[in-house]
Amino acid sequence: MTGKAFYIETFGCQMNAHDSEKVVGTLLAKGYSQVDTPEAADLVLYNTCSIRDKAEQKVFNRLQNFKRAAGKGKVFGVLGCVAQQEGEKIFERAPHVSLVAGSASYTRLPEMLVQLEAGNRRVTGLSLDTDETFDTPFTRRDNPHRAYITIIEGCDKSCAYCVVPFTRGPERSRTSESVMAEARRLAEAGYTEIQLLGQNVNSYRDPSPAGWDFATLLARTGEIPGIRRVRYTTSHPRDFVKAIVDAMDANPVLCNHVHLPVQSGSSRILASMQRLYTRDQYMQRIAWIKNARRNMALTTDIIVGFPGETEADFEETLKLLDEVQYDSLFSFKYSPRPNTAALAMEDKIPEEEKTRRLMILNEKQRAIQIRRNTELIGAVEEVLVEGRHEALGQWIGRTSQNRTLNFTHPDAGGASLVGQYMHARVTRSGPNSLAGESVANVV
To answer: What domains lie within the chain, and their CATH numbers?
Structure first.
C-alpha cells in the first residue's frame, strides 16, 4: 500500500457496528488514520452482513463502483459475515479485493495488515476453529456516552433460514470477570450507557467457576457505579427466562425494553423454521414481561413468506400483533441464504405475495404504534440526549424504552446537551417517534 489512510463502511446489526469499532481501534493503534470517504483512503474496508440477500448485494455493488480505483494504490477488503460465507470466492467475484476476513479473525488483524503492506494481494482470515470470543486489544468507541460490550459470540441454534452459525461459528461466552472489568473501565471513562451484545445474548453462560447466567450478569452490570442505563440485544425466546424480567424489575438502571424476536405467529411455521418454541411458549414469555411491575416496551422481528406459509399461518401472525401490541417491529420478506435448511424446502412463496403480506403487516403495526404512542402524550420521560435537529430547533433524545423523543429546550447559551439526561414532557406523537418539551434542568 502507498499509504495508511483507511475508510470503513459497516452494514448490518449492532454486533457489526461494534466489530467495526474493534477494527478501527486496531488500525489506529497500528499507525493508520481514518478518513471519511473511500476516495481519500489507501485501504477501503466493507464490514458486511449476510442475513439478507439485499445487504450482500449492496456490498458487491460498492465494490463494483470502485473497481476502477483498484490498481491506483488502493487496497480493498471485505470483512464480516459475507466474507465468512463466501470465503475465497470473493477473490474470483471481485479480483481487486485483497483481504477477506471473518469476524473470528479480527485478533489476527495486525498480522494480516503486515501481509497487505508487504504486497500480498490475497490475504484471508476465515477460520472459525476458536474457543475465544472476538476481543481485540484496541477498540475505538464511536459514541462517547454509549458503549457496546460483546458478551457472547456465535450461535448454537439451527434456525432454517439463518446463516449466523455458518458465519459466526458456535456460541462462545466471555468470562463474567472480563465483562465486568470492561464495563467498569467504561464507567470510569465516563460512559453512562452500556449495551450487552450477542447473537443470542441471553444464551450467555459464564465459562469461569463463577458460573453466572445472563440474568445474573445483567443484574451485576446494572450495579456498577456511574452506569445509568443497561440495554441488551438480541434475545432468543428459548433462553428467555423469568429471572431476566425479575432483574429488570428490581433495578431501573436496566432499561425497560425487551426485544424478543418471534419471526412468525404460527406454531406450524415456527416448527418449520426450527425456532425451538411454540406460539404458546412465546406468549408465556410475553406474559412475564407484561406482568412486570415496570412498564416494559416490547419489540420484535417478523419474517413473512417463509416457504410453506399459508394465508392461515400469516393470519396467525397478524393476530399475534393484535394480542401482543408491540411498540415497534422489524419486518422482512424471507430471503434464501446459502447453507440453510430452508433452501431445500418446497412451496416457495411468490415474491409479489411476500410483498403483499409485508405491506399488510406493516400497515397493521403502524396503526398499533400510532395508538400506543398517542397514549404517551402528557407523560414525562427521562431521555439521554443524542443529538440536535437544527432545522426543527429540537434536541434528539432516547427514552429508557428505546423510543426517540425530540424536544425543545430553552436556549442555554449555545451549550450542547448531548450526553446529558433530561426530563421532557410528551406533547405530540407519530408512528415512529415522540415530540415534547423539557420540564426540568439536567438530572
So the answer is: 5-125 (3.40.50.12160), 146-374 (3.80.30.20), 380-438 (2.40.50.140)
